[in-house]
Each structure stands twice: as C-alpha cells, then as structure tokens.
Amino acid sequence: MKAIDVCLSPDLMHLYPVQDRTVVVVDILRATSCITTAFAHGVNRITPIANLEECHAMKDKGYLIAGERDGKKVVGFDFGNSPFEYMQPQIHGAHIAFTTTNGTQAIAKANGAGEIIIGSFLNLSSVTDYLKASANNILILCAGWKGKINLEDTLFAGAVVDALSDVAQPECDAPRVAQHLYNTAKSNLFDFLKDSSHVQRLSRLNIHEDIRFCLTPDKYSMVPKLSDGVLGV
Amino acid sequence: MKAIDVCLSPDLMHLYPVQDRTVVVVDILRATSCITTAFAHGVNRITPIANLEECHAMKDKGYLIAGERDGKKVVGFDFGNSPFEYMQPQIHGAHIAFTTTNGTQAIAKANGAGEIIIGSFLNLSSVTDYLKASANNILILCAGWKGKINLEDTLFAGAVVDALSDVAQPECDAPRVAQHLYNTAKSNLFDFLKDSSHVQRLSRLNIHEDIRFCLTPDKYSMVPKLSDGVLGV
Fold it and tell me: Could you tell me the pTM of the whole model?
C-alpha cells in the first residue's frame, strides 16, 4: 500500500521530503480551481510565478498575465482569480503567466518533488484516478492563507484521502484530521464553509457564485501537471 | 468578544503574535498531562527545559530531573513521561526540571507571550474557567509531534474553542477545524484516537493506560502558569 500525507500549510513543507512523491497542490479558493477551469477551456499552458513583478514582466514576452493579491485582481492584469474569467474564448490556445497570494507560492514550495499536479474539486476524480494509477507515494499540499491553514483546502485533502482509503495509508495525523473533516462536511460543503475565514473575506468581495462553482466536484476531466516550471495537460 | 486562535504546530508560531495573549500550551500525550498531574500531587515547581543536556545538568543543582525523548524515559532521569509516575510521594514539595520531545519545545516557542499556561484534559474546566475570567485574547498552541500536527492536541484545542464559543470568536480556520473534530470525537475520545499516529507509536511502548488517563476530563482543578521560566500554581 502506498503512503499518503497532507501538509496543511506551505510553512510546514520543510517537514516533508518530496523528491520521490507526487505532490498535489491545492488552493480551492481560487488558484487551482482557476487553473483547472482554464485547461478545460483550452488554455495551452500556464506558467505559475510566485513573484508579482516577475509575472507582470511576462506581458512583454507575449503572455496573458493573470492572478490576484489578497483576493483582488491586479491592476494591468488580463484576468483576475475568478474561474468564470477563464471560460472566455481568448483563453483558447493562450499562454498565461499566473500569480496568486497563496496558490503559486505553494507550487513554488513543492519545487523538487518527484511530480507536481494541480487538484481542485472541479477535477477531483481525475486527480484520484491519476493517483490510484501511479505507484508514487502522495503528499497533498494545501496552499492555505498566508501560512495559516484553511477549511476549504483541508476539505479537499480529506476528499482525496477518503477516495484513496483502499490504496493509500495515512502516514501521520494530518490526513486523518482532513478525512474526518471531509466526512463531517461532505453532505453540504457550501453550508459547511459559510463561516470560514476565507468565505467571510471573499463575501466582502461579493463572490458567492465563485465559491459554489469551486466546490462543484468533477465538472472537468484532466490533471494539470508541472513540467520544467510550466503547467500543461 | 475576545478572539481565540489555534496554532496546530510549533513550526507555525511565527504566524501568531502573542505578546498580548494568553497562550495555552498543550501536549496531551503526555507532557502537559504529566505537568498537571504533578501539580495535583503537590510538586512545588517545574522548570521546563527544551534542551536535554541542560536538563540533565539540573540534577547537580538539586532538582529532580524528568522527561523523555521519542516517548522513552531518559537514562539517568528520575521520572519519565507517564502521568502515573507523578503521583509518587517524593513529588510532594519537589522542584523538577522537565524536558520532552515536543511539550517543552512548545513552551519555549511561546516565549514572549503575555501569559503562558498549561492545558490538558485533566484540567480542562479549570483552563476554560481561567480563560473566561481573563480579558486576554487566546492562542492555543498544540505541541504536535516534531512539527507535525496530531489528533490529540487538536482535539483538546477543539474542546477549549467549543467551551468558549459564547465568549471567544475564532480568528481563523484552525479553531473551526479543531472544534469540528472535537464534536465528531467527543462521545468517545479513546476510540477516536485508536488509529492516530501517536497512539500507534505509543502502543508499541505498551501504555494504553496512560492514554486513557490523559483523556480523562476534569480530574484535577488548577492552572499551571509560567512565571520567569518556572511553572507554578
């Protein structure tokens, strides 16, 4: 049986050796949901960039530039961080440079992993099928919020641990915490998340529609994967 | 309403400013359960020491020396890390120097807090009564296991958040995760913990009796408090 572990915050990544692991990076609200949506709508590739200025500079190299800081679209960027923006026709065939408060930082922290893939509820079954078919041990890396853990990424981690319970053994207590939380919440994820810090923060930005969308399981079938610093499918 | 937050791992303490907070340090299996038991049996004071060699050196200064590394009593130490050892008559009036794998490291990480107290299920209501009576905001610091989170400390944090729900507002998602977990587990904490990594590790050391004892709520009434680096009541 392979091993599965969950890193609930990028600030704990020093505890997890990943050179021989598949790392699933998750930032449900909303980076990895946007990435999944973009690939479902024909984006060619996405280059995740942790640094805002570096991302901005990619505009001159012919990239569309996208992302957010503190939940808000950046001035001068082509797209923000709502998945609905990544359904537009100009996405098709595009190369996007993408930076977000937490998601792209988490991808950077996974550097050196055997393999890095992108997970969201939108492609949940594709991710779990992919992990089942691979011999690799697994680490789910939750992006959280500025180092702190959050409910929505923990819930997604729990959903993956739960789906793999016949084939992957929790290595530590974090996967168990996540799985228990998911089983408590799964009948109505949106209601469960209502009082979370992120939903409260995002509510001020008026995006309940985004949140409902980001909690929809299996809307898309594909697994974005990082290769030489660039995401593709 | 005051604020309550939970730091699930000492390795996340850089995210939590604590200079004006009461920090509750918790290491259920077994450092803070031992500390509580020792004070209930008349120990005079306990000096927590993160470093093993420094703790050893306290023997020559007239202290009883106590603690563990990786769950095992240290050669030459007077007491290990089972709460039952701290019920012996020679505890009464003693000064103990105490070091453990995670608990005393967590106390060290709380350095600089407005106030540092010791929590365990054994003194749960004393701790929550103390926190209710204070105007301070609260941080519960879980000792975890070598930086990783664990179930038992998270459950205790959830029990405190739950007991204070009328007077203290969660600041972030970690208190919510802990509270949900506690509400799932509270009808039978021992059964819930059976598959946790720590219980599995300790089972090899044959100490189910310790674990049952450490999960007993409100056996003792007192709140150990750190003052000038020394715990007293």
Answer: 0.96
